[in-house]
């Protein structure tokens, strides 16, 4: 099965890199968002601190947010949704290939295609804005591990969102809602530390926080080694849990598949 997974991922990877304009647009769009964030937070923080972040730390936080958002939104969620909306899922059900596993390979292959652009954009931002360095070499290594878990975590969240197409027969509104929820509860819009306590508690009980706040907290040393390892374990648990939840939901939904009214 591993060869099949690699084949699906390779096809998705090649499909993504075939559209170089999309690569450029994703980096430019993320770059403009990063510049806007830097401009806003530089005025808010000035020479002081806000939520425990000084200006150098906030620059690092925003750059990590740029990196994670570039990866998180790079998968092939529309391809998955269209297979349901166009009825192609009925053909998939006749194939001796697990639907979720095949879509996971495609999605992660699509995300992998964004890695070069994300690295180039991040490196350019680091050179231009000189953010705070990692708290320690160990913190840097644990940050990388945390970033790797974004791949299965992003697939799990997006796959669950796509499953809603069975009920709504539309995906655009679902995509918008998912993106807003992810951006807010990940801390990409506003650092979790600046939210009211009850909202911080809610955010930490959700998987979205691991897209931005977790890697940034590890990188900046806002948690110790034990805390960083704990966050990574929770992140891994969410990755597995979302995949299992999606499989349960899939098993129920495919019993009620309706294709073109049939």
Automatic annotation (TrEMBL):
Transmembrane helix as UniProt keyword: yes
Pfam families: ABC2_membrane_6
Superkingdom in the source lineage: Bacteria
Xref: InterPro entries: ABC-2_transporter-like
Keywords: Membrane, Transmembrane, Transmembrane helix
Positions of transmembrane segments: 21-45, 57-75, 107-129, 141-168, 180-199, 219-246
Name recorded for this polypeptide: ABC-2 family transporter protein
